[in-house]
Write a structure and sequence with these properties.
CATH topology: Rossmann fold
Strand content: 15-25%
Largest sheet: 3 strands, parallel
Number of domains: 1
Strand order of the largest sheet: 1-2-3
Number of helices: 4
CATH superfamily: Response regulator
CATH class: Alpha Beta
Order of helices and strands: HEHEHEH
Low-confidence stretches: none
CATH architecture: 3-Layer(aba) Sandwich
Distance between the termini: 22 Å
Length: 89
């Protein structure tokens, strides 16, 4: 989380794939900080499961969408290209 926030501050990034569960801060907190500096950056959540509590958190967060793990490489490409982006809201 912290590394991703710093990386996005100091580099040009097209898209971020962020896990929800991270050791130093949650993915939701990290995306909030990333979007504060770069609100137009596409940030996609990745998670192994979607419980109703996680869905509620995603709805209230700054994520642009999500993808469930495990996923195939073509599924990730489609999400990044916006073809099958599952909105967080």
């Amino acid at each position: 989380g912290k590394d991703a926030v710093e990386y996005c501050k100091n580099n040009t990034v097209d898209v971020v794939l962020m896990d929800l569960k991270l050791p130093c801060m949650s993915g939701i907190e990290a995306v909030r900080l990333i979007k504060k500096d770069n609100p137009k950056l596409t940030v996609i959540a990745q998670t192994a499961y979607m419980m109703s509590a996680e869905i509620d958190k995603l709805i209230e967060s700054d994520f642009d969408g999500y993808i469930l793990k495990p996923f195939k490489s073509y599924e990730l490409i489609e999400v990044i290209m916006g073809k099958t982006l599952e909105p967080a809201f």
